[in-house]
UniProtKB/TrEMBL annotation:
<dbReference type="GO" id="GO:0015297">
    <property type="term" value="F:antiporter activity"/>
</dbReference>
<dbReference type="GO" id="GO:0009507">
    <property type="term" value="C:chloroplast"/>
</dbReference>
<dbReference type="GO" id="GO:0006813">
    <property type="term" value="P:potassium ion transport"/>
</dbReference>
<dbReference type="GO" id="GO:0016020">
    <property type="term" value="C:membrane"/>
</dbReference>
<keyword id="KW-0050">Antiport</keyword>
<keyword id="KW-0813">Transport</keyword>
<dbReference type="InterPro" id="IPR003148">
    <property type="entry name" value="RCK_N"/>
</dbReference>
<feature type="domain" description="RCK N-terminal">
    <location>
        <begin position="2"/>
        <end position="52"/>
    </location>
</feature>
<dbReference type="Pfam" id="PF02254">
    <property type="entry name" value="TrkA_N"/>
</dbReference>
<protein>
    <recommendedName>
        <fullName>RCK N-terminal domain-containing protein</fullName>
    </recommendedName>
</protein>
<keyword id="KW-0406">Ion transport</keyword>
<dbReference type="InterPro" id="IPR036291">
    <property type="entry name" value="NAD(P)-bd_dom_sf"/>
</dbReference>
Amino acid sequence: AARKLGFPVLYGDGSRPAVLQSAGISSPKAVMVMYTGRSRTVESVQRIRLAFPS
């Protein structure tokens, strides 16, 4: 649905900032994190915040 509305949709391990950077994302406005476990979700958000502090 997002792609049909013109939003870029990327698939990959977002807990790895290198994945986001290799996709050309230097300062994301929003990131959606979806894991089934709370610990993996928290870890991913922490890594993203470290990689993109602003």
